[in-house]
Please model this.
Amino acid sequence: MTKTVPVRTARTTCPHDCPSTCSLEVELIDDRTIGRVRGSTENSYTAGVICAKVARYAERVHSPDRLLRPLLRCGPKGSGQFREIGWDEALDRIAEAFLAAEARHGAESVWPYYYAGTMGQVQRDGINRLRHAKKYSDQFSTICTNLAWTGWIAGHGRLTGADPREMAKSDLVVIWGTNAVATQVNVMTHATRARKERGARIVVVDVYRTPTMEQADLGLVLRPGTDAALACAVMHVLFRDRLADRDWLEKYTDVPAELEAHLVSRTPAWASAITGLSVAEIETFARMVGTTPKTFFRLGYGFSRQRNGAVAMHAAACIPAVAGSWRHEGGGAFHNNGAIFRTDKTLVEGLDLRDRSVRRLDQSRIGAVLTGDPVSLKGGPPVTAMLIQNTNPMSVAPDQEKVRAGFARDDLFVAVHEQFMTDTAKMADVVLPATTFLEHDDLYRGGGNSYVLLGPKLIEPPGEARENHAVICALAERLGAVHPGFEMSARDHVDHMLRAGGYGSFDELVDRPLVDCQPPFERAHFLDGFGYPDGRFRFAPDWTSVAAENDGPMGPWAEMPRLPDHWAVTEAADEAHPFRLVTPPARNFLNSSFTETATSRAREGRPEAEIHPDDLARLGLADGDQIRLVNARGAVRLWARAFDGLRPGVVVVEGIFPNSAFPDGRGINTLTGADQPAPYGGAAFHDSRVRVEKWIGEDLSPACT
Ligand SMILES: Nc1nc2c(c(=O)[nH]1)N[C@H]1C(S)=C(S)[C@@H](COP(=O)(O)OP(=O)(O)OC[C@H]3O[C@@H](n4cnc5c(=O)[nH]c(N)nc54)[C@H](O)[C@@H]3O)O[C@H]1N2
Ligand SMILES: Nc1nc2c(c(=O)[nH]1)N[C@H]1C(S)=C(S)[C@@H](COP(=O)(O)OP(=O)(O)OC[C@H]3O[C@@H](n4cnc5c(=O)[nH]c(N)nc54)[C@H](O)[C@@H]3O)O[C@H]1N2
Ligand SMILES: [Mo]
Model:
């Protein structure tokens, strides 16, 4: 391709599953080709900063590996043998398979399955309109947010928090359980601004020395799953040293006296034994919080991906309530802004057709569902037909051996709508080529910021790629599904949601593609009350009410502590599995996306297990050795890397590499569990025990492309 001078720059929004939701400026070279992608300064949160992988988006959107035409499987399942077919044939085949499944076992045997490969409100969620119109099985979307959101809402009563831009006005920024440098770089923009302009200090709490922690004044490397113990000891010190804000506690919280009494025994020495941190580290952190009114807690997802994750999130969020940090601009806490937006999803998702008696299957338990576990199937029929959009469960879902066995079933029909030939698409019967965000219209909402943002179509799709919305509408027609949402274009849907929310119209947002929905200070800081009828923050939440929607509480919820506490329900190491495995994101991948781009693959290299040098020595292993990680769920072959930035007994494997990147073809989620954590499900991706074995066989390095 010869490069010509870009004719113009257009504005849009990054669609990927990331709290940042960056505003972008895209160079348009012609009506099919983009040039460089930059951050737009119009967005005062993302502030012109974007990650490297999106800056080189041309590599992904114009990749020679994009799917261009519908494909039909012509070899055994998973063989990768496909032949091209036309769109009509592809859609007819899917409709036929769905109607046949319905005729045989009822509508619930069809399970449309999706997630947030795009965060677009139309292209992501429109699949639910087809689902509800046809009474297909519902999806309980647990894979990412349940533990974290449940923990946050338990205390605050709603999913909102202080304006994340206030971090720049803070004197102490606590970055807890998020590797923001890799996963949401804009957090660092505001935290480092506070440091530069006000001399603010930065504390990072994690289980290994991440690039984020490298930038901290105080880095706390604790044992996985022990954050609530740290939080309790910090609050113990605040009460002990008269640093608790008693007026605030009286006015705004539920049971401060009971909490204080409960914490008397949660001393720094107690927490030291649980977390592995020194008493001095805990005292230092607590004193910093207690003596810095403007302390801002940026609470991430990572520390919630433990079986006690909801309790951990709630416990950490209790600290600013004890310290009274909420009083101050630049103080308080933030996790996610989900509840600030008014976007009416009725038309897009067909919510008026939703029948709550239809079974809801747990997304994270897809392995158990597809292998016929009666409890996971809620006593209903087997799943025999699926349409999958925007997600790659053959790689990202826990308990992979079961997922794999499920997708291998010959009596399961699977259609995958994808941009690339993912691990999941390889298992499909029909593969449909999908557009990217540059090739379709959509609307986005910030998770880690306060904007509603437009993402208009900027270029023509390659080959015959079609948007999700078009596929859903075309299937609806063939399946006899009726709803006004099927008669609208994606643009109509965006326009409707904007108008219904009072945010303007599609055309208005083309000129100014973002609307700041940040609530005023009083509300954002809960000064007008927390989200409970009595306006009080809950130290003693009713976990059953937090988890009430539909299915009621699950997991060992009845044993949850009444007040913030260390809750030892994580998968403890034992003699056969002496290591705790944590599997956080890789900087150059976005979940399983970007694993298909050469630059990201080159930067991430091969899947490696970071292990403390003392552990390696004890096991007779050296840096670079090929090893196996093994537990009751399976075994994964990869390479060892010596790293002294973690505790002995902890193994970190970054990134969800494709299965083909592993010598045995088995990805990291072979080792992670899909049991439902309390009180409302989720996936405890960073909470597995394993043993480390030297690999004695041949060192088969797979060909990385
Ligand atoms: N580059 C990149 N960015 C991403 C993603 C990606 O894959 N790559 N994924 C996106 C998605 S879908 C999401 S949900 C977000 C998630 O982003 P984050 O909120 O950052 O959450 P995680 O990445 O799961 O984990 C963050 C950190 O938590 C740490 N951690 C694990 N267990 C514990 C624990 O018990 N205690 C403490 N204190 N820390 C612990 C991990 O070591 C990791 O460094 O990132 C998004 N952004
Ligand atoms: N071990 C381990 N596993 C994890 C995690 C972890 O930290 N550790 N993180 C978990 C988390 S937080 C999450 S959110 C999940 C996410 O896992 P996934 O939902 O699989 O996430 P992505 O890789 O972001 O997106 C999946 C696919 O969506 C496709 N896609 C993007 N846009 C479109 C579109 O417009 N149309 C169609 N049809 N397809 C599109 C992309 O090509 C990509 O292949 O993974 C989870 N898995
Ligand atoms: Mo996620």
Q: What stands out?
A: The first strand starts at residue 8 and ends at 13. The mean pLDDT is 96. The first helix runs from residue 52 to 55.
